[in-house]
Amino acid sequence: MDILRRGVLTFGLIAALGFGPQLVLAEPASIIVASTTSTEQSGLFKHILPLFKDKTGIEVKVVALGTGQALDVARRGDADVVLVHDRPAEEKFLAEGFAKARHDVMYNDFVLIGPKDDPAGVKGLDVLEAFRKLAAAEAPFVSRGDRSGTHNAELRLWKNADVDLAAVRGEWYRDVGQGMGPALNTASASNAYLLADRGTWLSSKNRGDLTILVEGDKRLFNQYGVMLVNPEKHPTVKVKEGQAFVDWLISKDGQDAIAAYKIGGEQLFFPNAAN
Amino acid sequence: MLDTFNETIFRLATLDRDVVSIAALSLRVSLAAVGVGLLLGVPLGALVAVARFPGRGAVVALLNAFMGLPPVVVGLFVYLLLSRSGPLGAAGLLFTPSAMIVAQTALATPLIAALTRQIVADAEANLGPQLRSLGLSAVRRSAVVIYDVRFSLVTVALAAFGRLVSEIGAVLVVGGNIDGYTRTMTTAISLETQKGDLSLALALGLVLIALVVAINAAALGLRGYAARAYGSA
After folding, report:
1. CA of A87, closest CA in chain B: separation in Å?
2. Residue from the list A1, A14, A185 with its beta carbon closest to the beta carbon of B196
3. Contact between chains at B176 and A22 (C-beta distance less than 8 A)
């Protein structure tokens, strides 16, 4: 049975190597931030988090999900801070008592993307007019379909444009149920229209024949808010470290860091915390 | 297409430290899960093969079916278990490498048990009558047969490792794909694909495949050496 015993020891050792480092090493202070695919995939966090860590020693672990999912993760107590962009959903989160305060952090905007030759002829139109035309033409349109902030913004635009999506949707309306990146990839592969946040659009390396057709409309404004999860709901929330991150984001340092993030000379997010 | 490949070669040549630590995490998580899975699955599979008990047929069918457990469903199940609001929430394991090991162990164990059961059942067809005539208990008989087929279990371990290191559903849900902490090869490849950086995604994919090939070659080489040194397999 010698070999068996040796085998058991070997596997025990491997298992210990797997689990061990976490049990033994004291980890530096860290928090979990549930945030959106747009902030992660645009590269913003990679830019600002090292600055925060240098200043405070606190490590921020970002779980990037759609806004709806990010708020759900926080509702279960699995995140300390949420940084998302869907005002009505955030208000609901506050009203349920899962956070005590919400702070504006920054904004960017949504842009209507579509093929350069623009078969539906929406370039430069008012955004609601553009949405009406897309539905009338049944132009291929990719929707996030994942309850994210961008998806909810898109649904609000259809509604405000008086387009009854349930009645008119057909094969032209492609609900991919994924993050901003995959939705962009799908649109670029099928030359379809879609609503995207400008940050992810700018950082995407797979734009194909797509271009921005409608932008600058005030209804395309995209506000990000940050909230510390209420420790009365979830006692495991790291209040001190979480609050430090919230405070830093809306401080001059944090706001400057956000403003400094650029891709190809273009600023992606515009800080607008009320100070 | 050709451009993507050319760029991939360039990206391969310039892969940085991040990739090394991501690959190391993938290996660490999947090897640990295979290790724990072997400790649980091999005795379980062998016992099911050797012992006779009511409902054994159903257990065998279940084990075989669970070889194909969808990783994302296992991930979701483990997520709900480990969530702060779940029964094991107090441990605070969600979104850590340990959570990924737990989820992958849940994937590996039935696979290892089912394959072990098959191998042990085949070996027992020869050895069984003799062992039973010695009046050994089911546990002792299992141990003897496991020892007899020990070299074949290397292949079982490799099959489990291959499934784990290439799956994304479970590690993504319970690990959260946190940069520098729970980002594995597969979640990194998926993220780069989502960001539209296809050449980097492909470069990472080639690294993953090379790793899997290297580990398989090493394990089979070791098996061959051990078989020659300690008796035939």
Report:
1. 24
2. A185
3. no
Q: Do A18 and B147 touch (CB under 8 A)?
A: no
Q: Which of B32, B198, B230 sits opposite A17 (nearest CB)?
A: B32
Contacts with A189 from chain B: Cβ below 8 Å? none
CB A241 within 8 A of CB B89: no
pLDDT in tens, A241-262: 999 999 999 999 999 999 999 9
Q: Looking at beta carbons, which residues of chain A come within 8 Å of B33?
A: 18
- CATH number corresponding to A28-108+222-271: 3.40.190.10
Q: How far apart are CA B27 and CA B23, in angstroms?
A: 6
> What is the model's pTM?
0.85
Nearest to A184, CA basis, from A205, A153, A157, A155: A205
Report the complex ipTM: 0.81
Task: Give residue A24's pLDDT.
Answer: 45
A77 contacts B85? CB cut-off 8 A: yes
**Domains along chain B?**
17-230 (1.10.3720.10)
Rounded to 5 degrees, φ, ψ at A78 are -95, 5
Q: What is the CATH number of domain A109-220?
A: 3.40.190.10
Burial environment of residue B171 by CB neighbours within 10 A (0 to 12, 13 to 18, 19 or more): buried
Q: Cα angle at B178 between A47 and B209, to 5 degrees?
A: 110
